[in-house]
What we know:
This protein is about 10% helix and about 40% strand. It is mainly β and about 375 residues long.
Amino acid sequence: MGITYYDTGTATLSVGSKTMTGQGTLWAGWVKPGDQVIPQEGTSGVVDAVVSNTEITLKNPYRGVAQAAQPYTIMRTPDVVFTESLARQVLQKVNDSSLVALAGLLPAARRGVRFDATANAETFPFSDKAVSLLGQNDEAAMRTFLNVAPKQSSANDGTAGAGLITGAFGLGGTDYFQPTGTNLNALDRTQILSANDSGPTNWDGALGTYPMGFHIQRSTTVQGQFAIGFNGHAGFRAKIDTASWQPWRKLFDTRNVLGTVSQSGGVPTGALMESGSNANGSYRRYADGLQTCEHSINISDVAVPNGAIYGSGSITWTQPAAYAQPPSAQGEDTSSENIWVAARGSLATTVVFKAWCFTAIASVRTIRLRSWGRWF
Length: 376
């Protein structure tokens, strides 16, 4: 039988602590869990773990008299007892584990074992192909076996069959995605776009800066793009069965339906409708080229004889907004249907009119006038 105790060096113990500190000790090679610790004053404890040659953790906090660098004795547990104790612990853990559930399963060819949602063990079909897959040497061999390409090398990698990475073609990304530099014509597959350039090539700067949107592609000649400019507007363009892109077209919303209308070569480039007023009346302009003007003018009388009827003098109404050519015009007395008004556009900026009546009228009359025509 070997030495049944160990008492080399001294030991320090504190009341209420599980730590036992040694001075001049070699506990790691001699002491093991389950050995009995007997301090100088005689209160015993049990070793739970040997941390190092100079530190032991007790199973329970020390309750004896504190000692500092004082003699001690550790009574070693016989190996047969220690081994038996360990064996019992292992059996207990196995008995308490899910492994017990495996005992009731019957072995069968091509069946795997798993635990269901309620932790019950069961078998499931395990095909020859699944067995072959698990038999591959590494991930690359598994991909080859499954005929699956590796994941993308970059967010713009279009390798057929490649696995998508975070941010692939702009999907799931949190930063700008402009894989083709600064030319929107260079996009060659369906993808998200978030430009890092304030004015990419082939972008309409009138729609704003740093466009964000998406590119949709059916073929090299059938494509479409939609984008929103930062602090600007939304627009779209397309090419349909042609190699050339159509120009960007603005989408209208509550911010730009009303505003300044404009055109270039007969193509509207501004808002849908514009309205305004000045001393000559009010006007409305529309993106399709239509313009209307309104104004009310007081005349002193309708008393100039002209055969069997009476008229006012000729009066010129300067338009609040110029037309492209003389407009059409009409007028009416605001308080009597027995007075009629004849009006015509004399110039692109003026309308001339007279009021008429079957009887002479010496009082002031209010005439409401309207004109309409094209502003381009």
